[in-house]
Amino acid sequence: MTGPALARCGYLGPEGTFSEAAVRTLDLAAGSDLVPYPSVSDALDAVREGEVDGAVVPLENSVEGSVTTTLDELAMGTPLLISREMVLPVSFACLARPGTSLADVTTVTTIPHAEAQVRGWLRRTLPSAAFIPAASTADGARAVRDGEADAAIAAPLAADRYELAVLADDIHDTDGAETRFVLAVPPGGTPPAPTGADRTTVAIFISDDHAGALLEILTEFAVRGVNLTRIESRPTGVAMGRYFFSVDCEGHLADARVGEALSALHRICADVRFLGSYPRIDGTKPEVRRGTGDPDFVDAEEWLRRLRAGEPT
Amino acid sequence: MTGPALARCGYLGPEGTFSEAAVRTLDLAAGSDLVPYPSVSDALDAVREGEVDGAVVPLENSVEGSVTTTLDELAMGTPLLISREMVLPVSFACLARPGTSLADVTTVTTIPHAEAQVRGWLRRTLPSAAFIPAASTADGARAVRDGEADAAIAAPLAADRYELAVLADDIHDTDGAETRFVLAVPPGGTPPAPTGADRTTVAIFISDDHAGALLEILTEFAVRGVNLTRIESRPTGVAMGRYFFSVDCEGHLADARVGEALSALHRICADVRFLGSYPRIDGTKPEVRRGTGDPDFVDAEEWLRRLRAGEPT
Amino acid sequence: MTGPALARCGYLGPEGTFSEAAVRTLDLAAGSDLVPYPSVSDALDAVREGEVDGAVVPLENSVEGSVTTTLDELAMGTPLLISREMVLPVSFACLARPGTSLADVTTVTTIPHAEAQVRGWLRRTLPSAAFIPAASTADGARAVRDGEADAAIAAPLAADRYELAVLADDIHDTDGAETRFVLAVPPGGTPPAPTGADRTTVAIFISDDHAGALLEILTEFAVRGVNLTRIESRPTGVAMGRYFFSVDCEGHLADARVGEALSALHRICADVRFLGSYPRIDGTKPEVRRGTGDPDFVDAEEWLRRLRAGEPT
Amino acid sequence: MTGPALARCGYLGPEGTFSEAAVRTLDLAAGSDLVPYPSVSDALDAVREGEVDGAVVPLENSVEGSVTTTLDELAMGTPLLISREMVLPVSFACLARPGTSLADVTTVTTIPHAEAQVRGWLRRTLPSAAFIPAASTADGARAVRDGEADAAIAAPLAADRYELAVLADDIHDTDGAETRFVLAVPPGGTPPAPTGADRTTVAIFISDDHAGALLEILTEFAVRGVNLTRIESRPTGVAMGRYFFSVDCEGHLADARVGEALSALHRICADVRFLGSYPRIDGTKPEVRRGTGDPDFVDAEEWLRRLRAGEPT
User: Fold this and answer.
1) 3-class secondary-structure state, position C82
2) CB of B258 within 8 A of CB of B251?
3) What is the DSSP-derived secondary structure letter of residue A47?
4) Which of A10, B68, B138, B294 lies in disulfide reach of A55, CB 3.0 to 4.6 Å?
5) ipTM score for this prediction
């Protein structure tokens, strides 16, 4: 295990969310006190204010895309670092109070992101049920328990927490859907050591909206053999057409090619916020292109040093 | 005016939303019957099924980013075309039933996107009020009228519709925030004629998740002098790391450089869905780089034809 | 055989040069009257003036590089087209008048390009012999016959023509050296039909000396999957730093990807002179990258036509 | 003056060549013993063997292009460094023995490169004179003095040395023609200090003939804002299609952007030979692109160091 264990770890609550399921897979949180927070912002603020030692929040979903609050909070809020990622298969169930049957359901509640992932099932199975948006899947389950709706779309584990029955399981429309979660911790201290199968997350703010800025950014990565695994454009809130880019790339800050690429972006962009290097949960090692491994950089730097000193090369 | 007027035009309702404000600025909808729909999907489905001749839905917001349902519906649902865009400044008000003062407010409701844009004001002004998510700003106003919450964050025009009072106006945190709306119409028929200040929207699906696919796509545009004004990566729902790109570029399908760029993408990508060429509401004409104007293409094609025919050039 | 046979074919003479050896391998010159010319310029002028139907001249040598007179004449002289290429292994012999031994040799003559390719042998074998530059290898052989020098470095076949003895054979320093020759013919008429293993030669003149012009040119080829097999920068004679690029690429003018690449260069460059598409003598077929074959272009053009006409795609 | 003065300085002779004119403009050779050598190779060998402290040889001519022997010797011979450049306008005269008139001239001699630059004048003025190639312009003048030809095309200063009369002056076809010379010195010791208006010369050997190698090389320069002022492809002598690139770029080895670009090439290429950083004789300072100046690199490296150390940035 790399990195210190967490005494207290927050997560996007309430109890029974997928975030809780994610934090329960996290090595660093084994034995931690787990603290649910009502929103991503609240969970991250709790880390900033020292209430917890880290917080698990969703970053992206293979069906619904990025969790924009998480991207924006990490990119523009008080700085935090990502030190772990978790990936969970998405498996939705339809929950109701015991005794309710599908035929009884006239209202369905869940967070809109979840609704989008079971829309096909809802149209086929509950075509006339009205949809009531909830703040989270778990909050939907709570609302059903409290009689505010007939059925909730939620993680199966929410059934136990809210004393509900499972009317139907595995109802998501797309097989293989996954959600990626990250552990955000306070900045400072050295990042997790490289494992050889790492990922690095950065937020890149461009100086102006000149066409071609994204092409320049991608070229800085590509020319050094650093592959991207995710790129999202996000508005900065200043004006239409003013973006930052939230980027995941292969490799670790300690890798020479990653370091040089980030330095280059720091030189040419308005701002680059480093958001962490951490082990990939899938353990995939990058294919290091000819001439871009650490020994290649060490050799090239020594060559350059000798040239500059007038020594034989 | 280019394009036929619409007898019936849908919009993202209910009455009093910013989408209604947008549709009221639309030349093609002057005199149209306006029909509110409860969701983006419903509004677009109404066009697909012929209930209305077009529908106005939000596409992106300068603070909150893209409206992902709109992007996904246009890219992956039954095909539609964009034939107009509208841009509206975002101006939020805090509405309550007459007689309510700010000191009385314990619950606030609105669509989460709107809540994000007034969060600073809420923390300063109503720090202890609980937030209740609503399906739209207008639905929040309705909920306040019906006594389900104390205050709603909505467009000022919702006050009239729902017989509410304005407790505070212009409460959004970021000045200059705007929302861009598009008019979606059925495919078929020729696109709006070029005006010289046009925008083109496409959805580009990559064949696989190979690193460098985005760089290739951007290069196809850049090499032909076509500037991008928006690019969003969106998951295709198949697996983490499988994206499509929702792109706006300068120029019109009828422009040679745009046509050749789209053809090139069609050749190298898994799929390219053309989503429309339409006049820019801001009237900005593109800077046409040396060698990329229509006469340059015409001249080059004639030159090539002569070479191939063995005629003097 | 593609293309018409030549009644009269010129070559870079005099008799006994490698150019004569090359023309003797040329299908189109089987049965032709062969006419030697004293210089590349004279041979090409003879084609321009109709004295001969074509002329074989050297274009590049794997040791000495391009034959700049050929490049410059084709790029900037009265237009001609290349319709064939020939490649010959370079094999030099040291020739002298019968009765001369190596020990007797005090002066050696040949064209400087040839001297460069046997310099190692000369330093080892004839370290004290003086070098006298000749206008061609064959002219050096003539000079030896006429008593102007003791030994000539030339093609072995020059021995017969000039009644010389071979003092040493295969004396070139680098194994595998080759010279590539081209057949230049008058422009007009259609180019040789594509064979599937073709090469295309062009001269590309940049508008100004802006840094990055070469990068732009290479990108136009690369983005369309057209590989280059030779690129040379050559001064235009206007000023230091003003270049044209002499380029060979894989494929044929009739190939869609080649045609589009050349059209693009025609659009953005000061001038592009097409110098011919002709069968590769080595028969190497290009690897056609995904999306860049002729059917891909045909399909993409039809797709674009349908989009523009408002037809279903 | 930067760099040590030279006690003895070689040049491409014989006396009266443009190289002698060039060396006479060189600050470092003021007061030096000047030693002519019969060939570029001999002059450079004299530096290698310590006979002279440096040698001046031509590198490129704005009409005839690169002097390939110089490029190849510097790239592939025993290493030397360039520490100065000189640029001379090309001005040719037609010289003959006193008493000879233009009407008497039946044979003209000079080095072929020079003949190419006065070809138009020769065709107009001496259309029936035969051309005899010489080893240098000065050697042509010597040959005329010795009665081996009637007229020589040479630098005006050769008239005095070889006791010839000037039949016609300024006879070159293209105005503004220039030749660039370089001073080659032994390697070792530190390069000349940066002046802010420097040029750097390198020879870049690619690993294989993969299409796209040149594009990669250009991209390494471009991405770091380093502009090229000359690029030549040259065969390596191994096989057709195997090249090295002889490149001049703006800036100095000591500049961060140049150093990083060269390091990158060292990583990805088969070999990079640094051939010197030296003041531009035209004093042109490079336009340093945003984010590529030395302070930008220093700042970015410190930022990276802090990130890696876990310190605040």
Assistant:
1) strand
2) yes
3) H
4) A10
5) 0.89
Q: At residue B3, does pLDDT exceed 60?
A: no
If you ran DSSP here, which 8-state letter would residue C293 be given?
A: S
A250, β-bridge pairs: A199
- Pairwise CA distance, residues C122 & B82, whole Å: 76
Residue whose C-alpha is closest to residue C284's, from C197, C193, C158: C197
pLDDT in tens, B68-94: 889 999 999 999 999 999 999 888 999
Tokens of C7: 């009644």
| D138 CA to centre of own chain | 19
**For residue C4, what pLDDT is reported?**
54
Amino acid code (one letter) for C25: T
Position B62: which residue type?
S
| Tokens found for residue C5 | 């046979």
What 3-state DSSP class applies to D144? helix
Nearest to A218 among B63, B135, B218 (CB): B218
C74 within 8 A of C135, measured Cβ to Cβ: no
Burial status of residue A113 (CB atoms within 10 A of its CB: 0-12, 13-18, 19 or more): middle
- The gap between the terminal CA atoms of chain B, to the nearest Å, is 42
d(CA B18, CA C105): 98
What Å distances lie between residue C136 and A51, C16, C154, CA to CA? 88, 10, 9
The Cα-based distances of D304 to A190, A262, C304, D31, D309 in angstroms read: 13, 8, 47, 50, 9
Distance CA C265, CA C257 (A): 12
> Pairing state of beta strands D107-110 and D151-154?
parallel
DSSP states of C29-68 as a string?
A: GTTPEEEEESSHHHHHHHHHTTSSSEEEEEEEETTTEE-H
Exposed e or buried b for every residue in B105-124, given b needs 16+ CB within 10 A? bebbbbbbbbbbbbeebbee
Residue B8 near residue B33, CB atoms below 8 Å:
yes
Report chain B's mean pLDDT, rounded to a whole number. 90
Whether a cis peptide bond, with omega within 30° of 0, leads into D312 is no
Q: Please, what sign has the CA dihedral across residues A250, A252, A256, A259?
A: positive
- Quickly list H helices, chain D: 18-23, 40-48, 68-76, 112-117, 119-125, 137-145, 157-161, 213-223, 256-268, 294-309
- Backbone φ, ψ for residue B115 (5° rounding): -55, -40
Q: Which two tokens stand for residue B127?
A: 């720090």
Helices (H) and strands (E) in chain C, counts: 10, 15
Residues of chain C neighbouring B188 (CB-CB closer than 8 A) = 310, 312
pTM of the model: 0.89
Please name the residue of chain D whose CA is at the shortest distance from the CA of residue A253.
D308
DSSP state of A304: H
CA-closest candidate to residue C184, choices C304, C79, C67, C310: C79
Judged by CB atoms closer than 8 Å, whether chains meet at A312 and D189 is answered as no
Using the Cβ of D292 and the Cβ atoms of chain A, whether some distance falls under 8 Å is answered with yes
Tokens of A236: 């900065």
Q: How many alpha carbons fall within 13 Å on the CB side of residue B194?
A: 15
Interchain pair C237, D68: CB under 8 A: no
DSSP code of B151?
Answer: E
Q: What is the pLDDT of residues A68-117, one digit of tens each?
A: 889 999 999 999 999 999 999 888 999 999 999 999 999 999 987 788 88
Closest alpha carbon within chain D to A267: D291
Rounded to a whole number, what is the distance in Å from the CA of C312 to chain D's nearest CA?
A: 38
Cβ–Cβ under 8 Å, residues B207 and B93: no
The amino acid at residue A37 is: Y
A117 backbone dihedrals φ, ψ, rounded to 5°: -90, -10
Picking from C56, C179, C115, C67, the residue whose alpha carbon sits closest to that of residue D64 is C67
Could you report the per-residue pLDDT of C145-200, keeping only the tens digit for each? 999 999 999 988 889 889 999 999 999 887 778 899 999 999 987 778 999 999 99
Interface test with B, best of C216, C263, C289, C306 (most B CBs within 10 A): C263
